[in-house]
Amino acid sequence: RAKKMGRNNTQFYQPAMNEEALERVRIESALRNALERDEFVLHYQPQLDLQSGRVVGMEALIRWQHPELGMVAPGRFIGLAEETGLIVPIGAWVLRTACAQAKAWQDAGHGVLRIAVNLSPRQFSEPKLLAAIAEVLRETGLPPSCLEIELTEGLFMNDVALAVELLHKLKALGLALSIDDFGTGYSSFSYLRRFPIDVLKIDRSFISDIGEGDEAAIVVSIIALAHNLKLRVIAEGVETAAQLDYLRRNGCDEIQGYYFSPPVPPIEFERMLIDGKSLQPALV
Ligand code: C2E
Ligand code: MG
Ligand code: MG
Ligand code: MG
């Protein structure tokens, strides 16, 4: 059929494209089913205060417990969820589940723990976002000050005025806002002053460079920048004692990373809380 229409006709390539489109449709409906069948789970990674050495919060990270594929990492489906818009209902599930879990741990006497939830750009442009978050806070009873929303720098590339307005409305709910993967995205420092941000999360790539000379200067600079702007600063992806030591000596507020714990299922996280697992406090 393609031959009849001529060699240069784009029809010639149609089969391959159809396959790609079909694959996407397949994944989209698989994601939709996953939500209906309750196949998503949240793992939690502790965040530790470097002064006290104690767990002060946790980041909720989604996984897909696929009946055949096993545990699927978010890197393999968040992008597609984003493109198809399914991130909106999936993200709503994440927010509700994470807030309910944090409240349950508080009620069980594990102290005031903060819960950090990732928000994708697509969710950010969802008109009902504000109402949805307010409703989750009300229904779960989690104090708004215990919720931290993680945003990425890409968010600030679109309509800046609109973004500033929405961030102020989010802040008015009483929650905290953090910039995830700081230093890797659209790096304009102007938004740091304009946007009501509370926390900078130093991207893992800068932390893994600690001990490699020059690169550590970036980490020190981000810590100084954060503190000058009265922001809290968290180092992501801390894997070694040397990195931890460096961050502590340079005044970083909090850490998160495999050195202390990877993201773990709720039952294991709770075990950590019960055992009072912590870091050696700073020797001040
Ligand atoms: P992120 O928000 O920057 O999360 C941190 C990622 O780094 C997590 O990967 C975590 O497992 C990993 N990590 C933590 N400590 C270490 C470490 O010491 N070493 C190394 N090598 N990695 C570490 P994960 O769970 O695979 O998530 C990947 C990304 O997927 C997240 O990056 C986030 O952007 C996205 N994501 C995860 N859950 C959600 C969600 O519920 N909603 C949205 N919109 N995005 C999510
Ligand atoms: Mg994050
Ligand atoms: Mg990150
Ligand atoms: Mg990331």
* Rg, Å, rounded: 21 Å
Percent of residues in helices comes to: 40-55%
Quantity of strands, as a count: 9
Bound molecules: ligand C2E, magnesium ion
Uncertain regions spanning at least 5 consecutive residues: 1-6
What profile does the largest beta sheet have? Answer: 8 strands, mixed, barrel
Class inferred from helices and paired strands: alpha/beta
- The gross shape turns out to be globular
Order of helical and strand elements: HEEEHHEHHEHEHEHHEHEH
Q: Write out the strand line-up for the largest beta sheet, numbering strands in chain order.
A: 1-2-4-5-6-7-8-9
Gap between N and C termini, in Å? 78 Å
Mean pLDDT: 90
Number of helices: 11
Beta strand %: 15-25%
Report what the structure shows.
With 284 residues, this protein is α/β, with parallel strands linked by helices. The protein starts with 13 loop residues before the first helix and ends in a 9-residue tail after the last helix. The N terminus is likely disordered. The structure holds ligand C2E and magnesium ion (3 copies). Keywords: Membrane, Transmembrane, Transmembrane helix.
Topology:
Layout: H1 14-36, E1 40-49, E2 55-66, E3 70-72, H2 78-84, H3 87-107, E4 114-118, H4 121-124, H5 129-140, E5 147-152, H6 160-172, E6 176-182, H7 190-194, E7 199-202, H8 204-208, H9 216-228, E8 232-235, H10 241-249, E9 254-255, H11 266-275
Helix pairs in contact: 3-5
This protein binds ligand C2E and magnesium ion (3 copies).
Domain EAL: 24-277
Subcellular location: Membrane
Protein name: EAL domain-containing protein
